[in-house]
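Dear colleagues,

As part of the handover before I leave the project, I'm documenting each prediction I ran so the next person doesn't have to rerun anything. This entry is a single chain, and its sequence is reproduced below.
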Amino acid sequence: MTRKFFPGCKVKARYPEASEWLADQVLARGYADEIAGCCRTDHQALASDDTAVCICNSCMAMIDEDADNGAMENVWVLIDNDPGFPLPSYEGRRMAVQDCGRAYDRADVQDAVRSLMRKMGIEAVELPDAREESRFCGQSFLKAVPKQDAGFAPRRYVEDAARRGIFTPLGPDAMQARLEEHAAAIPTDEVCCYCSACDVGLEAGGKDAVNMIELVSGMFREG
């Protein structure tokens, strides 16, 4: 039985220093035994008694539907349940919470994000389209679903997507207008995310997106 941490390719590319720090913490604190590679190529190697530990909501979707692992856990939930984890303080900050539409039904992840914000002294501002109502994932939900994603996770990315009205392709101008409209409805300048695609989409719409990995690692820099 092995616990394998999938660090998320896009998260690593966007936050390389914080990702390296987090991987070290995951191993040192016993959340996982080893660091895996890309979920797209490595998830099918999971054995039935393995546990997949994930940071990326898309990794979780594909592993959930297309791997043989016995269990799957989210790194933010693990950190929130670790009373000794050395969280930094951002006392007095106020941020809206952008729930990722890929994790609309993962209440444990949503709860952990908010709990960690409170523990770090951040006031979490709720949005009307929070939790299961979220249909936001930056530009990715405004394009057609990639064929590989649909093949790995057809329930979430085909069946659920059709029901929820996501992966609806828009042209560049309409896409930008949609992102700006979404950002304009958020009452805070800073928005806490736990998805790199949400980060990119919020920034394109004019908001200052702050990822959980920046906050938890202490590598968040204002502006």
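Residues 3-80 form one domain. The mean pLDDT is 95.

All the best with the project,
I.
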